[in-house]
């Protein structure tokens, strides 16, 4: 931060174990966007264990609480995998309910697909494609609801937007807390 004059910086793809009061304290600098992408992968501790993640849902929840306690109006986005080998209906429900509790700004949902050369590709009890699709659709519906709930808080507020691109006379850009905004303008707003 002390070595750049860039006026807007967005950090991405942090892990819960990297979140500390010292790190979050940097957000006193308004150039840091109020957006954290913390990949969760699953809201079930049993599935996280099979994935060999180095955090639990309680670790994740602590990180989110710390961020929200120190950064007002922050956006927290995540990635979720549904249908990881062995994921039971109860484990999916845990994951779904954890995501609902976290009130994410956005949830990127991915159905599990095996990757050659990974340990997970050899795990037993693969989840049927039809079931993965059903779970994905359910999680995507929650993602849409969560995004709408977050954005609704900012209706009627004026916020700075970084305009990025124009399509048919309509510009799109992002607030520092990751809300996509649109406006009509004949001016070139690129990067303003």
In short:
The protein is α/β, with parallel strands linked by helices and 192 residues long. The protein has five helices and six strands; from the N terminus they run αβααβαβαβββ.
Distinctive features:
192 residues, three-stranded antiparallel sheet, 33% helix, three-stranded parallel sheet, alpha/beta, single chain, globular
Describe the model.
- With 192 residues, the chain is an alpha/beta fold.
- It is 33% helix and 18% strand.
- It is built from five helices and six strands; from the N terminus they run αβααβαβαβββ.
- A three-stranded parallel sheet has the order 1-2-3. A three-stranded antiparallel sheet has the order 4-5-6, with no helix packed on it.
- A hairpin with a 2-residue loop joins strand 4 and strand 5.
- Helix 4 runs parallel beside helix 5.
- It starts with 20 loop residues before the first helix and ends in an 8-residue tail after the last strand.
* Overall average residue pLDDT: 95
Order of helices and strands: HEHHEHEHEEE
Main sheet properties? 3 strands, parallel
Number of strands: 6
Morphology call: globular
Structural class, please?
Answer: alpha/beta
For the largest beta sheet, what order do the strands appear in spatially?
A: 1-2-3
Radius of gyration: 19 Å
Q: With helices defined by DSSP (H or I, 4 residues minimum), what is the helix count?
A: 5
- The helix content, as a percent range, equals 25-40%
Low-confidence stretches: none
CA(first)-CA(last) distance? 21 Å
Share in β-strands: 15-25%
